[in-house]
Write a structure and sequence with these properties.
alpha/beta; Rossmann fold; Alpha-Beta Plaits; 2 domains; nine-stranded mixed sheet; four-stranded antiparallel sheet; 8 helices; about 40% helix; binds magnesium ion
Length: about 260
């Protein structure tokens, strides 16, 4: 664990969690609750985390909100919670509320056509195996491939994806182990703001935990409104307030959060 600020300590923050009327724990999934894996279908949460998160979700005036780049369908196949939690999929394009109701924000025909162009490009280059297609994004992933293939995919993505993104009007984003073309218009930040709008601003405490570039965007938007936690095996330059190494420090953080809720 490493704290990046002098002004406030983790104990101060947990005291705020204890005394607030609404407590929200926002967290990313891949790389945060679960290890980053090439085969994402087997990326299960670290041992013991779901149990603590269930207790946090079930505590009074307390919510757990998972915000992922995965589709909701895919997220629910790996994250099986006993309690109701709010889940956001595909970077804020899909929402499942605690009562199970699902909402998908519509993407335009133009954006859908643009995604098909990317899919066709990947088929022509014979790299479809490394492509993941979601509601509003197409990702090229080299995490877990051998060095030669990684180099090939990185080179292709550098040479082709940027002009392709410009041509078809998609946003190019890097992430650990790949590059992605996203339909513009929504992001994880929209999911967080959506939840904020529901909160009584003056008496709430929240933290956002994440590992990747899309989470750094959220850290920036949150600013000083909440605790920003980078979860990662290795430290890197970040906008976060603190850094936790998964899984042990992360589990301890959740346990401390739970203790603060019950204090
Ligand atoms: Mg992640």
């Amino acid at each position: 664990m490493k704290w990046f600020h002098d002004g406030i300590s983790l104990d101060d923050f947990l005291a705020k969690v204890s005394s607030s009327k609404q407590r929200v724990l926002f967290t990313d999934y891949d790389g945060t609750l679960a290890p980053l894996m090439y085969n994402r279908n087997i990326a299960k949460p670290y041992s013991g985390l779901v149990e603590v998160l269930n207790q946090i979700a079930a505590a009074p005036n307390s919510q757990v909100v998972v915000i992922s780049g995965r589709s909701l369908h895919n997220l629910s196949s790996v994250l099986k919670m006993g309690s109701e939690i709010e889940m956001w999929g595909t970077y804020g394009w899909e929402l499942q509320t605690v009562d199970g109701k699902r909402t998908t924000w519509p993407i335009s025909d133009g954006a859908r056509g643009a995604m098909y162009e990317v899919i066709n490009w990947a088929e022509n280059e014979e790299i479809s195996t490394y492509l993941e297609v979601k509601t509003a994004s197409v990702s090229l992933k080299w995490h877990g491939t051998d060095a030669k293939m990684r180099e090939h995919l990185m080179e292709l993505s550098l040479r082709i994806m940027k002009p392709l993104a410009d041509k078809v009007g998609l946003e190019l984003r890097n992430f650990d182990g790949g590059r992605e073309l996203r339909v513009p218009g929504r992001s994880k930040c929209d999911a967080v703001e959506h939840v904020f709008d529901r909160l009584k601003k003056d008496n709430s405490a929240f933290a956002y935990l994440g590992d990747n570039v899309s989470d750094e965007e959220v850290f920036e938007v949150i600013g000083e409104r909440g605790l920003r936690v980078l979860v990662r095996t290795h430290e890197r330059p970040t906008m976060a307030d603190m850094w936790l190494r998964p899984p042990r420090e992360l589990k301890r953080f959740f346990e401390a959060w739970l203790a603060a809720l019950n204090a």
